[in-house]
Specification:
single chain, about 425 residues, alpha+beta, Cytochrome Bc1 Complex, Chain A, domain 1, 2 domains, six-stranded mixed sheet, five-stranded mixed sheet, 15 helices, 11 strands
């Protein structure tokens, strides 16, 4: 059995000097409307991935759930093709479409063998500009989504997560606003169509292409997606979070056998700052990898839980730090006490240089894995762009890892991870 209280052998240290950074930035190809096609080219693969990213997250919706349902249903029929016909065209060619939505953006991602790109681009343009949202598909989706929501609301971890964001952002802020059961009944298909017609604008779409790209593909994308006049219709509308006072919330669920604990706060930094990278390092030490302080204490030593971790979550305009775990009801408060002890130790007890080197190697290895291929690099860059982060993030990140000291870890922890500034949510 692995003893996670002992750091692994660190004879083989990773460093940033041998990381090739030349392939981490994209090529830009200007379309006729002035928008860029952001390209990450690799002739070593026969696959092409296209990501269409719209400013169409829930921050822009007038009716709750309309952004999510529009994203789910966008491939369920156009004026020329039914949902069945679209599915058959894509399935026959082995083309995979993934749809995702967050607070600010909605993404439609398409992965295909290169030989099908020119053939399938007109259908993609049709889906993104002429979706009709059939009433029957809407009803099926809304009913399934409502049932999924009701099932989630029975889980302590879901309720804890939801309550946490409501309390750290406030229920009026888009990041703290969540749908209720009644919102599923109120939403109409016309609400969804209205949202789609307004926010899925090709002229405001960011297009990322990765894989085996040639001039024919770029010309075709421009002909289909580069002819509409660029409009500043959808400027970011996410207000800067108002920092809420730390609070403690306990929600009792009599039938629960475990409690979910979530402790954290909003952090006033963006991705492209040195502070952010230093917080990432501190977070890794605290609860971000197999040898973390929280794992060693709460799981390995005390045996209170199977899993405990901390993370820094990126939002546009702010970031969130949190710790979460599920424990037996009988040890809930003991587990929370140990979590706060480890938070306090982060700012008062510098780790050894050897332990810091382990963490640095872990983060560098994780970074190398995140750029191991053209699609991974493209995803990393896309995340930075859609989060409105600077392109210098990579260099800042690697340089900060190189230079950080145990003393600096204590300083940054005292500045941002003070235990008295945390909001605590317990559900169970």
């Amino acid at each position: 059995m692995i003893n996670r209280t002992i750091n692994p052998n660190n004879d083989l240290k990773l460093n940033t000097t041998n990381i090739d950074r030349s392939n981490l930035l994209p090529q830009f190809h200007k379309m006729d409307n002035g928008n860029d096609i952001v390209c990450f080219n690799s002739q070593s693969v026969d696959i092409v991935k296209i990501d269409f990213v719209f400013e169409a997250g829930k921050a822009y919706q007038s009716h709750k759930l309309s952004a999510m349902i529009a994203n789910k249903l966008i491939t369920e029929g156009t004026s020329k093709h039914s949902a069945k016909e679209i599915a058959e065209i894509l399935d026959y060619r082995g083309i995979y479409i993934d749809k995702n939505i967050d607070s600010t953006t909605a993404t439609v991602s398409v992965l295909m063998v290169k030989k099908y790109v020119l053939e399938i681009l007109p259908l993609l343009h049709e889906i993104l500009t002429d979706a009709i949202f059939p009433e029957n598909e809407f009803q099926i989706t809304i009913n399934k989504s409502k049932q999924r929501f009701l099932n989630e609301m029975m889980k302590t971890n879901y309720v804890a997560r939801r309550t946490f964001y409501q309390n750290i952002f406030g229920m009026e802020h888009v990041y703290g606003s969540f749908a209720s059961e009644e919102d599923f009944d109120k939403l109409t298909v016309d609400n969804v169509r209205e949202f789609y017609n307004r926010h899925y604008n090709i002229d405001n779409c960011k297009i990322f292409i990765s894989g085996n790209i040639d001039d024919n593909i770029l010309v075709a994308v421009n002909q289909l997606f580069g002819q509409t006049k660029h409009s500043p219709l959808l400027a970011p509308i996410v207000p800067k979070p108002v920092f809420m006072q730390p609070t403690q919330v306990y929600i009792e669920k009599a039938d629960a056998v475990q409690s979910t604990i979530r402790i954290g706060k909003v952090i006033d930094t963006t991705w492209d700052t040195t502070d952010f990278t230093e917080i990432m390092l501190a977070n890794t030490i605290l609860g971000g990898y197999f040898g973390s302080k929280l794992t060693a204490n709460v799981r390995e030593d005390k045996g209170y839980c199977y899993s405990i971790y901390s993370m820094v979550q990126a939002f546009r305009g702010a970031n969130v730090f949190f710790i979460t775990t599920e424990v037996g009801k009988g040890v809930t408060h003991d587990a929370a006490k140990e979590i706060y002890n480890e938070l306090a130790n982060m700012s008062t007890q510098p780790i050894s240089n050897d332990e810091l080197e382990v963490v640095k190697s872990y983060l560098i290895g994780d970074f190398i894995r995140s750029i191991d291929g053209v699609f991974e690099i493209a995803d990393r860059y896309k995340t930075m762009v859609t989060s409105h982060s600077s392109e210098v993030f990579t260099d800042n990140y690697l340089n900060t890892i190189d230079s950080i000291t145990p003393e600096k870890i204590c300083q940054i922890s005292a500045k941002y991870l003070d235990k008295d500034s945390m909001t605590q949510i317990i559900v169970g």
